[in-house]
Amino acid sequence: MSDNDNVLADGGSDKYMVPALERGLRLLQEFGRGNATLGAPELARRLQLPRATVFRMLNTLESMGFLQRAEGGNDYRLGLSVLRLGFEFLSSMDLTELGQPVIARLCEAIRFPCNIVVRDGRYIVYVAKVTPPTPLTSSVRVGTRLPAHATLLGRILLADLSLPELRALYPEEHLEGHSPNTPQTVLELFNLVQSDRERGHVAGAGFYESSISTIAAPVRDHSGRVVAALGVTLASAQIDAERQTELVPSVCAAADELSELLNYRPQSGAQVLSITSRRAGGGHA
Fold first, then answer.
1. Which keywords describe this protein according to UniProt (predicted)?
2. Residue 144, C-beta contacts closer than 8 angstroms, at least 6 positions apart
């Protein structure tokens, strides 16, 4: 085994780190929804670096298009090169490439926004979305991140985790609340997730936003792991419980179609259980 192989096997080594590159990436990570624009003094304070160093980093990143000057002159915001990298990453994923036509057909059939979401640690990330030409709009877009524990889509994506794994992911005693429906403890979250897993889908209103309902089902890959959630978003005021129940089979069928494209082949027993669960209905969060 070569030295490079040893480094990879050990998960990396500090001696192979490039300090300037690390600082530049850390600087970019400071920008986000809550910090759309930042100036050099604030970045120097956050990164605990000399202002002169930060000014050079900003100048380099601006010249490469990763940052651009905000209106007013002295502050910066993320540039188009960051956006380009993000979309190239998403478009390179088999999941989004295969899933986009699936949710496009589903959206055309049911006339509601359809999404594909993956999990990144404690967050869900929207990686594909199709919206019908209707008055209903959604604030989420590709790249939007939301807390996994506080969303129905997140509960789908946590389905494969055991209770010890969930506790490792959420070591705090009380989970952060985002609505009256947010589970308060890891055990409460685990019980909800297990019910969702047995049912084969989730369907509920007001779990994260009071005016929004969600129907979602798991997408699995060739190993059987849940790798994504395929969901439909709808306004609670525009749909009744009967119509919501009618939509569940369509969402589950689309998720199954995408799973099959990812080479998932359910065992016969699991398939029978899934079909039985869906006929039984239910699942309001």
1. DNA-binding, Transcription, Transcription regulation
2. 125, 126
74/132 Cα distance (integer angstroms): 40
**42 φ, ψ (degrees, to nearest 5):** -70, -40
- Phi-psi bin for 11: left (phi > 0), alpha (psi -120 to 50), beta? left
Q: Exposure pattern of 264-281 as b/e (b: 16+ CB <10 Å)?
A: beeeeeeeeebeebbeee
Collect all residues with Cβ–Cβ distance below 8 Å to 228 and sequence separation of at least 6. Answer: 95, 99, 116, 117, 118, 127, 157, 218, 219, 258
What is the tens place of the pLDDT at every residue in 29-47?
888 767 788 999 999 999 9
Taking the CA of residue 65 as centre, how many other CA atoms within 13 Å lie in the half-sphere pointing to its CB?
A: 6
Which range is most confident: 32-41, 43-52, 231-240? Answer: 43-52
For residue 146, give the H/E element and its range: strand 145-147
pTM score, whole prediction: 0.62
